[in-house]
Design goal:
Blueprint (H helix, E strand, L loop, with lengths): L10 E3 L8 E3 L5 E4 L12 E7 L10 H12 L8 E4 L4 E6 L3 H9 L3 E3 L5 E11 L8 H14 L2 E3 L2 E6 L19 H13 L1 H4 L4 E3 L18 E6 L8 H7 L4 E6 L22 E4 L2 E2 L3 H4 L2 H4 L8 E3 L16 E7 L7 H8 L13 E6 L2 E6 L3 H10 L3 E5 L6 E5 L1 E7 L8 H12 E2 L4 E3 L19 H15 L5 E3 L22 E3 L21 E3 L12 H11 L5 E2 L2 E2 L12 E2 L13 H9 L1 H4 L6 E11 L3 H4 L6 H12 L15 E2 L1 H10 L4 E2 L5 E7 L3 E12 L3 E18 L5 E14 L3 H6 L8 H6 L6 H15 L3 H11 L4 H13 L10
Parallel strand pairs: 10-11, 11-12, 12-13, 13-14, 24-25, 25-26, 26-27, 27-28, 30-34, 31-37
Antiparallel strand pairs: 1-2, 3-8, 4-6, 4-8, 5-6, 7-8, 9-10, 14-15, 16-22, 17-19, 17-22, 18-19, 20-21, 23-24, 28-29, 31-32, 33-35, 34-35, 35-36, 36-37
Helix pairs in contact: 3-4, 11-12, 21-22
């Protein structure tokens, strides 16, 4: 029933922005309070809502937002725009018009609303409090004007041009006199319809940014279906239902979808719940959709390290004991505001503190965010207690050229999340990685750079820890027993193998690769005395530098492994102690450049003038070549040298460039393949002493390589010269070869130096005779397991056959002859001898 009471004072609402003022007059208005129905029709005139909170919300952080949230909840998605919201000490008020569906919702509730704090508030409603006149404020019209402006200035956002930016839409300054919420489905539908009806500008839209709008219902977006967009940003909303999201976006297609900071992303079923949208979007939150599960981390979605869990630092270490039996995730947070340390470097320092006597420690879900390195661990309370109590939550960083150790204090947040379905299980990941790394055909367990295995993206496995290494080898021994004959542990930062009894459990093990690790003393591999190894590789460990003579190195290793037949890929029966290790590779992948692929081939063709012209293929029009000759003929020939000898030396001096004698000597810088070949073709024929060569690959990456080589060469029979050459190689083309993975490199800078040989070089030069090329090539070469494995891989790439068919043709029928295998495949394919299930 209409309420009867003293009338409020009439007033004029003037917005001061050009809109016609609204004159509120209560004499002819009708007031309703605690009613469930009203008389007649509300019409199109203005209606005033009064919210009687009686001051109970005055001490809340934002009473207005609490009331508006309750108001919009009450209208249940109907279109509703509160105008001229006024806050009062006991009563708040606002105006509305043309909102009968929403008005009915309030009366169905008995003109009551409930705020999120649980307080129930009563409403009073004044019908026909003001006439609707032309040029008065119209929220729908203002919204259409704002959208028209935004359509006229589409943005470049997240790499996509033509994005309509509706983020935080309610904060637009044009809405200062009324409330607009896209979280209200009626309002959102009005906005989407307005955009869709603007045919002239709608076609230019390439993406939508709807971030930070409290959206929970995206049904209005369906009118934009069946069009390919570049971006749909829904981050920072209130999307909770995966089923509703997939239904609403069923026909929406975009390259990028942003969902970060929605409740949905913190659910236990995320990201699996998004699978129905797999064909609609390529990238979700910056991660390829097909890799979203692998890249998922609770630190991005489920955990807020600012408030979740209990903080433990140096000031409250005593609270740690209450988490002794916890099975939840705990977060480590290590401050690094300048991002001084990369992930690998950080864990190298951190694991110095981790005890090898306590439980295994597997950092999971590492990320750098907010100036901190963050990762999660669980089921390792004893290690955490050690790091808190014994190490005082400090990470020690050694300083070069100083005995001082820098300390970085860090802190923990305990119980930040429970273990949920889909969370990573380190032991399961490791077992899966072992299975992926085992080649059953060749019986090789290749754990080289084990951390780089695909399934370990979210788990850090530190083989520096003897306990973790022992655990992994124990898993391997259970899975493969005597099937493993070759174990490769190179490039894993292993410190030693002592106290590892699990190696002896691999009773069929014959070869072990420990190259490029951190083993600094022969005593660290004493456990190998129990393993009957035939082949061992230790190259690249610091222990190798402790021996000045190869014979001493071999003797020390054989004391540990007396049955050893091969050491560092050298057959010990060939008396390898005659030569010393003298080459350096900054990256093992550069090894191919120092052999027949480039360096040896280049030097051999340089030796003979009739083959030297072939070197032109290594140069480009912008290549640079310089030659320096500092050879002093009087030092090596105290007796007056012959004229013939002087002429040969002068051929080098003629092209020599010596900036010490002439700082302006620039005319002998040769640029371009044509000019370089003119110089090379005029130099004498020579013979290199390949035993004397020392090679240094100083730089190697996917774009460039720098190779330095020095040694001795002979010009004729009586002129011995020392030389050095430095090549700067740059990638010229990619995607070559059968597998489209090969690349071509060209020389962009070369420096050739001729000098006097040292007394040692003169004494040792040409003591060993190299086999002729034809004889060398005719010698049978036993292919390694790696070569055979690579042949099978390439054969499968070319033919598309299943592994067992590849093995049958390459190994059994062609005896590893690759050309013969391809011919056999073509014959079988032509004769229809290959069934359909032979192909992948």
């Amino acid at each position: 029933m209409p309420a009867i009471r003293s009338l409020p004072q009439d007033r004029l609402v003037d917005f001061g922005d050009g809109h016609q003022p609204i004159l509120l007059q209560y004499r002819c208005a009708k007031r309703y309070y605690k009613c469930k129905n009203y008389d007649g029709s509300p019409g199109l005139n203005w209606i005033e809502f009064c919210v009687h909170h009686e001051g109970v919300l005055n001490f809340a952080a934002n009473p207005k937002q609490l009331i508006l949230n309750a108001v919009f909840d009450a209208v249940e998605g109907e279109q509703f725009f509160p105008v001229n919201y006024q806050c009062g000490s006991h009563v708040d008020s606002f105006l509305v018009r043309a909102c009968k569906p929403a008005l009915d919702k309030f009366f169905n509730r008995g003109l009551k609303i409930r705020v999120s704090t649980g307080v129930e508030l009563h409403l009073s409603v004044w019908f026909n409090v003001a006439d609707n006149q032309r040029n008065q404020i119209s929220p729908a019209f203002v919204i259409s004007q704002v959208i028209d402006r935004l359509l006229g200035r589409l943005e470049h956002y997240h790499g996509v041009h033509g994005v309509l930016n509706l983020s935080n839409f309610s904060a637009n300054p044009y809405f200062k006199h009324f409330e607009v919420r896209l979280s209200n489905p009626g309002t959102f539908h009005l906005v989407c319809s307005t955009i869709n009806n603007n045919d002239d500008r709608r076609r230019a839209i390439k993406g939508f940014c709807l971030a930070h709008n409290q959206l929970s219902d995206l049904g209005a977006l369906r009118i934009f279906g069946d069009i390919d967009y570049g971006l749909l940003d829904l981050s920072g909303n209130m999307l909770t239902s995966a089923k509703r999201l997939c239904s609403d976006l069923q026909r929406i297609r975009a390259k990028q979808l942003n969902l970060a900071n929605n409740p949905l992303t913190k659910s236990a079923k995320y990201p699996d719940c998004l699978k129905p949208l797999l064909g609609n979007f390529e990238i979700v939150d910056g991660v390829p959709f097909d890799k979203l599960y692998k890249m998922y981390t609770p630190l991005n979605y489920e955990i807020d390290v600012e408030c979740d869990g209990v903080r433990i630092d140096w000031s409250n270490k005593s609270r740690l004991a209450q988490f002794k039996d916890s099975k939840d995730w705990h977060a480590f947070l290590i401050p690094d505001p300048e991002h001084e340390f990369a992930k690998e470097e950080l864990f190298d320092y951190f694991f110095i503190l981790v005890s090898s006597e306590l439980s295994e420690f597997y950092p999971c879900y590492y990320k750098y965010d907010g100036g901190e390195h963050r990762f999660l661990v669980r089921d390792c309370y004893d290690q955490i207690e050690h790091l808190v109590v014994n190490c005082n939550l400090e990470m020690k960083i050694a300083q070069l050229n100083s005995n001082y150790q820098r300390s970085i204090a860090y802190y923990l947040r305990m119980n930040v999340s429970t273990l949920k379905q889909g969370h990573v299980e380190p032991k399961q990941c490791i077992e899966e990685a072992l299975q992926k790394r085992f080649n059953a055909i060749n019986r090789v367990l290749n754990l080289e750079q084990f951390q780089n295995t695909d399934v370990l993206e979210n788990v850090h496995v530190c083989l520096t820890s003897a306990r973790i290494l022992n655990s992994i080898l124990r898993m391997a021994s259970r899975k493969f027993l005597g099937n493993c004959v070759d174990l490769r542990l190179c490039n894993n930062k292993i410190l030693g193998l002592n106290n590892l009894r699990t190696l002896s459990l691999l009773n069929g093990l014959q070869a072990l690769d420990l190259g490029q690790n951190w083993i600094d003393d022969i005593t660290a591999i004493g456990a190998l005395s129990e393993v009957p190894l035939k082949s061992l590789r230790l190259h690249g460990n610091s222990l190798c530098r402790k021996y000045s003579l190869p014979s001493a190195y071999i003797r020390a290793v054989k004391e540990v492994c007396p049955g050893l037949q091969r050491l560092d890929d050298v057959d010990l029966s060939s008396r390898p102690g005659l030569t010393t290790q003298k080459d350096y590779l900054c990256d093992p992948a550069a090894y191919e450049l120092t052999g027949e692929l480039f360096l040896c081939q280049f030097l051999r063709e340089f030796e003979l003038s009739d083959q030297r012209i072939n070197l032109s293929r290594f140069y480009t029009d912008s290549s640079i070549f310089t030659l320096t000759c500092s050879y002093d003929i009087r030092r090596c020939h105290p007796v007056k040298p012959s004229n013939e000898l002087c002429k040969r030396i002068n051929k080098y001096n003629y092209f020599s460039r010596n900036l010490l004698k002439n700082s302006r000597d620039t005319c002998r810088v040769h640029v371009g393949g044509h000019d370089i070949m003119l110089v090379l073709m005029q130099l004498p024929e020579v013979t290199h002493d390949y035993v004397s060569l020392q090679t240094d690959v100083m730089h190697y990456d996917d774009q460039m390589a720098i190779i330095y080589v020095n040694g001795v060469l002979r010009d004729g029979s009586d002129l011995l010269l020392a030389f050095s050459r430095q090549f700067v190689l740059k990638v010229d083309a990619n995607g070559l070869g059968v597998g489209k993975r090969a690349r071509s490199m060209k020389i962009i800078n070369e420096r050739f130096n001729i000098m006097n040989p040292s007394p040692k070089q003169q004494r040792d030069a040409f003591k060993f005779v190299e086999l002729p090329m034809d004889q060398e090539l005719s010698m049978p070469v036993e292919e390694t397991v790696d070569v055979k494995e690579h042949k099978l891989y390439i054969f499968q790439e070319i033919t598309g056959l299943r592994p067992k068919w590849c093995t049958r043709i390459v190994q059994e029928e062609a005896n590893w002859d690759f050309q013969l295998a391809l011919e056999q495949f073509l014959r079988m394919e032509t004769a229809n001898e290959l069934p359909d299930d032979a192909f992948l």
